[in-house]
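Before relying on records like the one below, remember that each one covers exactly one chain. Contacts with other chains, cofactors or solvent are not represented anywhere in the record.
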Amino acid sequence: MRATVRLVALLVLVACTRSSSGTTTTVTSTTTSTAEATTLVPAPMAEHRIGVRTVDGEGEFFDRITGQSFEPRGVNLIRLDLGSHSTLDPAHYDPERIENTFTAIAAAGYNVVRTFLNSRPGGMPGANESLSSEYLDNAADLLARAKAHGLQVLLTQDWLPESASWTFASDPLIDDVNAMYLSRGGVDTNRRFYREWVQGLIARDAAFDALLAYELRNELYFTDLYPPFNLTSGTVATANGVGYDLAEPDVHRRLLEENLVYWADTMRSEILALDPSGLVTIGFFQPKGPNTSRVGDDRLIETEAVILDSTLDFIDLHGYPGGELNLAQIVENYGLPPVTSKPILLGEFGAEHGPYPTIDDAVRALVDWQVESCAYGFDGWLLWTWDTAEQPEFWSAVNNEGVIADALSPVTRPDPCVVGDLELASELATGASVTASSETVADVAANVIDGLPVTIWSAGADAPQWIELDLGSERVVEAIRLLVAQYPAGATSHRVTVRGESGEGVEVARFDQDTSDGDWLEVALEEPISGARYLRVDTTASVSHVAWREISVLGS
């Protein structure tokens, strides 16, 4: 999830709320029975327009009216108030703004909008009712407006409503977030939520034919700081009716996977009992391995079993360029096979200003990421985000007069798996070979062209040092940029030269200035350089060991 606050709560006899800082406070709350009788309501009048089918063993979305394949291409539409998702909140819902936004999104050719339900007071929880009637009214209004614009809505959420109506008792050896998915009380209360939520939409004659799917969680996870995942002895009985000996090898992963599949299948069955044509999915961030990521993060998830074995209609996987893993590594961590019987949605991908300091950088990264994802079997793409001003660290679709919106638009690029007619300079460093004066075992020279700002090349020694890229053949170079890896900050001197397959190197830039870690040094070229094959950076002075995070060479 790319919101500013992480929502976590322990719902037991004594409830705990974990803040984004990781601290835990205890508050007393009461439990409510999950066996209350419910009022039956008629099935929804409108069948969901989008379905899922299998063609030659591979899952795909399709339009139930036309029979044609459906390719989700859209955006996340996010409003935030003090870190909470406020899009549908009674105090913040803005029908006129929604209408204008949907008009712009549809005009760009997009067909899906993903938005969040707010679990906090002022959102879904009602003051004197388990679910806010006004909040449900707003959800129905959003769906009606989406239908009028030919858009499908994916409703997602992070948590159950945070009110006394939704507390529950956990089971022995199950604590914190884990109670939501492993305890009988957690499973029953989630079932009740989806029953009441669907009933609320049915009662409002909502436009179910504009509801792409119910997303059970934005990014579902467990925690390894609390039982049972921090225990190595004892036997825990979970909601799926299985007892797990916590001393057994690999038992934690098996416990997680089996209960995740059980929880997902149970929630889907609850929803389909009221809404038989609905689609149900879950979103995830990548597991921590086998490619090491999210070090120090207690959030625990394994996704291979739920992808392969659950009855979910499709799976929503999230991955962002410019992070600690490339796309191939992210896909490997997810355990995503080359072909799946379920469609795979890239429900979040976006570009931050840090690794992509210009809008052109962001466009190139996002388009390349989308094109590359096709090779891994992704069937749909939702940008983070359309216009979220509350997250200034991200480029949005509408920045710089909609450059990103246009580049990812189905109107501009009908085939998301090719760059198309976009005039984008290529990253010439991709696939280059790299040599250096020296390198450390962990921080090798090739790290400067891996596209991951978190990795570095380090000479492991003071200046003078050098690093050189061989582009493989003579190219036309339009821009050169260097991402500084340095601690502490201070004065440095660097010389950048370029040469062809023969001849002497030509100096194109010299930097003598104070630099600090994360700075971009941009070589100002008055005109493109033709016949360039080798690019070399010589560092003659530095306050730290010589190192770089990335070297970018753009051109054709």
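Confidence is low (pLDDT under 50) at residues 1-38.
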